[in-house]
Amino acid sequence: MELWDVYTKTREKTGRTHVRGSVDRMIEGDYHIVIDVWTFLPDGRLLLSQRDPLKPSGLLWEGTGGSILTGETSLMGAVREVEEEIGLQLNPDDLVLAGEIIRNDYLLDVYVTRFPQMIFIEELSFQEGEVVDAKLVTKEEFFEMGRAGLLTKNMLPRYELFQELMDSYFQPIPTK
Q1: Domain map of the chain by residue range?
Q2: 106: which residues sit within 8 A by CB, 6+ positions away?
Q3: Is the dihedral of CA 156, 162, 164, 165 positive or negative?
Q4: What is the pLDDT of residues 16-28, one digit of tens each?
Q5: How far does CA 64 lie from the centroid of its chain?
Q6: CA pair distance 8, 2, nearest whole angstrom
Q7: Which long-range contacts (CB under 8 A, 24 or more apart) does 11-18 make?
Q8: Distances from the Cα of 40 to the Cαs of 21, 22, 63, 73, 116, in angstroms?
Q9: Which CATH number is 33-95+108-169's, of 3.40.50.150, 3.90.1150.200, 3.90.79.10, 3.40.50.300?
């Protein structure tokens, strides 16, 4: 059972919680916090994960994300979700909050991070029911996937919203 804190639109806790998927829907004006993490490598490639085929938008590619749990901060939830879904341990100090997007019943925090070393997809572990694969893509490959309809519907709009920051992370770190 996944339990969420309920917030107002201005991120004040209401003191109530909500059970994910419960028949009791959230009240209009109630929100929960969702995170989206864009993980880049030192060479400027973006780590994408492929959704489980049984989930909505199954087999499409996206960053790592999900709802934060009761008692978590947005940052704590971001670190937990990445570790749960793909087995990658992020340093919370390395995550940069790109911004917030307000949706019908959730507040989405978009984070960007650069993992400090190169990784191999074979070293990742995928959460059953959530992720079935991962890949590393260049900026050009990211846009090719978007044109081919292989990304979840929110990936390109989120990139465009935070384009300047995303573009800076798509650049490799200069080596000495």
Answers
A1: 33-95+108-169
A2: 31, 32, 33, 34, 67
A3: negative
A4: 888 887 767 778 8
A5: 3
A6: 19
A7: 11/107, 17/70
A8: 32, 35, 10, 22, 9
A9: 3.90.79.10
User: 107 is written with which tokens?
Assistant: 């507040």
Query: What tens digit of pLDDT does each residue of 129-168 get?
Result: 999 999 999 999 999 999 999 999 999 999 999 999 999 9
* pTM, entire model: 0.94
The 3-state DSSP class for residue 92 equals helix
Bridge partners, 151 (sequence order): 61
Q: CA 2 to CA 20: how far, in whole Å?
A: 5
d(CA 37, CA 88): 12
Tell me how far apart the terminal alpha carbons of the chain are, to the nearest angstrom: 49
